[in-house]
Automatic annotation (TrEMBL):
Protein's recorded name: Uncharacterized protein
């Protein structure tokens, strides 16, 4: 995903994302995400604050300090109605082991992640009740391809995990859609399948 793609999505749904016009403050946007945000941040021009990133490698919805950082930024923002995009899931359903190989995280449940995401939304609304919180879809990715990229000798052994992970992510994204439908805000979906985590 590029800066252009993000900008296009934001502009399409809400024209107050334009830069200051006539001295009016633009709407502030925040993105809470894992390492996907670090890659995206590199493509965003530093002199143009389109989105304030709160991104951390390996982040999950259970990282308390990570969530507190976002809530603190929102509490101190000047925008009356900030847009908060939460883009997690990649690191929720996989775990990293030796040699940076990943596998399915069987101790995590979809409902557990959804419950924590609802809690994050509640914390945001407690400090800025007019905030708009949107949960972005988790991209489909491949355990096999990731492990192959990391140099695993027999990455084909992860083919079954790919099938299971795709089912998990599709179910998770369906629940995110349902969660987003409870608000009247714009719907974001990046339907691109990503094969490397």
């Amino acid at each position: 995903m590029s800066q252009h793609a993000v900008r296009k999505q934001l502009d399409r749904f809400d024209d107050d994302f334009q830069k200051k016009i006539g001295g009016h403050q633009r709407r502030e946007a925040f993105l809470l995400t894992d390492s996907k945000g670090n890659y995206l941040l590199r493509s965003v021009q530093r002199d143009e604050k389109i989105i304030y990133f709160v991104a951390k490698r390996g982040a999950t919805s259970s990282n308390t300090k990570f969530v507190e950082e976002l809530v603190g930024r929102i509490a101190s923002c000047e925008s009356e109605r900030p847009l908060v995009m939460v883009w997690l899931g990649t690191c929720e359903f996989t775990k990293m082991g030796a040699h940076r190989y990943i596998s399915i995280n069987s101790s995590e449940t979809i409902d557990g992640v959804i419950e924590r995401l609802v809690s994050i939304k509640t914390k945001i609304l407690e400090v800025k009740s007019s905030a708009e919180v949107i949960f972005l879809s988790c991209p489909i990715f491949s355990v096999r391809h990731w492990n192959e990229y990391q140099g695993h000798a027999i990455p084909e052994t992860f083919a079954d995990e790919d099938i299971k992970l795709q089912e998990i992510i599709e179910t998770f994204n369906t629940k995110l859609d349902s969660l987003n439908s409870t608000t009247s805000g714009p719907k974001f979906s990046f339907g691109t399948k990503i094969f490397v985590r």
